[in-house]
Amino acid sequence: MGNLLCCVQIKQSNVAVRERFGKYDDILQPGCRCVPWIFGSNLAGHVSLRLQQLDVRCETKTKDNVFVNVVASVQYRVLADKACDAFYKLSNPKIQIQAYVFDVIRASLPKLNLDDVFEQKNDLAKAVEDELEKAMSAYGYEIVQTLIVDIEPDEHVKRSMNEINAAARMRLATNEKAEAEKIIQIKRAEGEAESKYLSGVGIARQRQAIVDGLKESVIGFSDNVPGTTAKDVLDMVLITQYFDTMKEIGSHSKSSAVFIPHGPGNVRDVATQIRDGLLQASSHQQS
Q1: Is residue 136 within 8 Å of 97, Cβ to Cβ?
Q2: Does this model's pTM top 0.90?
């Protein structure tokens, strides 16, 4: 019925190209439009004004001889005031855009190492966008945005890069662990040194207290028992300590202490040896 009344319907976000006797006549906007076919007018076609996206996958080689697949996503649309150019000047815009993307990527990536490709991804996208904008504007197309959405090296290269990264992190972890163990050992050594120092101080104080106690015992015993010497007092003290020690050993069934040779008379021999050692040391110092 529309054709009989010379009326056509143009959908929203689209325009139609009207020709008259095979020659461009006008761009028809969305809505109900008149196409008087009886006067030689007809619709040559429709042009979409919607934003479109084209993903282009390009394989190329970097400066360090690594083959990579680069995926560029190009978002473009037809300019409403240049719909005529888009319809008549370019038969397949996707092939044209793809060719320009290939040209820019294959001209730029061979100048960069693989690591630099990842770092300069935005610069590469900007170069592709600038080149497309300059080329496609003449055909009535606007390049809205260009993105480098994926950079995929060869599988063996990716595995090697992961191994290098893992080795570097393992080396860092090993260094940190070694430093931690070093600190632990230093702190442990400092603690042991402090403990031994305090233990030595305690032993020194204990021995000093023993010496002071013996000194007071000798003096008190000599004053209360006339005719006794310091030697007699020390011998008696040693005998007393000997019996105390034997009593302490006997009170424990699992004691492993053994005296060889054993007997009360040996205490006098020990006392004699200690006294002789002290006298020899004293005479050596005087000489």
Answers
A1: yes
A2: no
